[in-house]
Amino acid sequence: MSTIDFRRHRRLRRTEGIRNMVRETHLHKEDLIYPIFVKEGTNIKNEIASMPGIYQWSLDLVEQEVKEVVDLGIPSIILFGIPHEKDECGTSAYAEDGIVQQATRLVKEKFPHLTVIADTCLCQFTDHGHCGVIEDGQVLNDPTLELLVKTAVSQAKAGADIIAPSNMMDGFVAAIRHGLDDAGYHDIPIMSYAVKFASSFYGPFRDAAHSSPQFGDRKTYQMDPANRLDALREAQSDVEEGADFLIVKPALSYLDIMRDVKDRFPLPVVAYNVSGEYSMIKAAAQNGWVDEKGIVLEKLVSMKRAGADLILTYFAKDVVKWLEQ
């Protein structure tokens, strides 16, 4: 065998020390964004049946969850609100005393150095569960933009560090950018859900946020999973309109899109490791079918390798604990 000329790639895999030396992709706790669901009411800590380990929190109890995030060194959270009352226009999404606004003020008061991202959408707040104004069964684009601007400005006023609009209306980044600037919030960045597919992976989130559409679906504004060039057009529009970050959602089934976005646009890319991806692994792990730690870390590294600078994931707390072991 010594006379055969071939490369010995295994030399760089021989020991753990050597493997660590040549590792190309690294996952750090600074890469992580942790989602928190805040619900109107008191003494609420409801575990979401389809998302083991993830809870709905009332304002009087959410501080304990945020404190754990801070103590673990996770640098940022994203807030999703669940209101008591809903109406056709999602009024509580942009109310000064809305649940996201209240939660933002509380978190920033208690933990001023934690970066708070506000999800900017209407679906949790509308009685029909769609992300905008409805007329004759259709979601109206431009009237919805007006409400999204009001929501974003109210969230910035409450102290949100970053606005994350997730509605997929045409022109939403431009409208929100102008609205924030006109209100004096020139320095508040927009983390746009630039590429958001009409995915089947969102089911557990809709349980958590009580945001399922009451009729039809969201395929007229969220993207067809079969389309790649459409994703690049969407991302380009958001870049031109003033986005500061670009989210790709979901992450795992769209790693090719994430790499395309990263290669084409000079902005930080955020992978959204969505609820369905979380729940499948949790269910398999609870049945003893997979090694949860191994499969989660492998999955998140694949997102980093595909171009993600940041990862929004329900596994964030677990990941930090595993990384520090």
Automatic annotation (TrEMBL):
List of catalytic residues: K196, K249
SMART domains linked to this entry: ALAD
Positions annotated to bind Mg(2+): E234
Keyword entries, A-Z: Heme biosynthesis, Lyase, Magnesium, Metal-binding, Porphyrin biosynthesis, Zinc
Positions contributing to Zn(2+) binding: C121, C123, C131
Residues engaged in binding 5-aminolevulinate 2: S275, Y314
Metabolic or biological pathway: Porphyrin-containing compound metabolism; protoporphyrin-IX biosynthesis; coproporphyrinogen-III from 5-aminolevulinate: step 1/4
This enzyme's EC code(s): 4.2.1.24
PROSITE patterns the UniProt entry points to: D_ALA_DEHYDRATASE (PS00169)
GO MF term list: porphobilinogen synthase activity; zinc ion binding
GO cellular component: cytosol
Chain residues that bind 5-aminolevulinate 1: R206, R218
Domain of life (superkingdom): Bacteria
Needed cofactors: Zn(2+)
GO biological process per UniProt: protoporphyrinogen IX biosynthetic process
Catalytic activity: 2 5-aminolevulinate = porphobilinogen + 2 H2O + H(+)
Uppermost EC category: lyase
Function text: Catalyzes an early step in the biosynthesis of tetrapyrroles. Binds two molecules of 5-aminolevulinate per subunit, each at a distinct site, and catalyzes their condensation to form porphobilinogen.
Family of this protein: Belongs to the ALAD family.
Record text on subunit structure and interactions: Homooctamer.
Protein's recorded name: Delta-aminolevulinic acid dehydratase
Organism: Evansella cellulosilytica (strain ATCC 21833 / DSM 2522 / FERM P-1141 / JCM 9156 / N-4) (Bacillus cellulosilyticus)
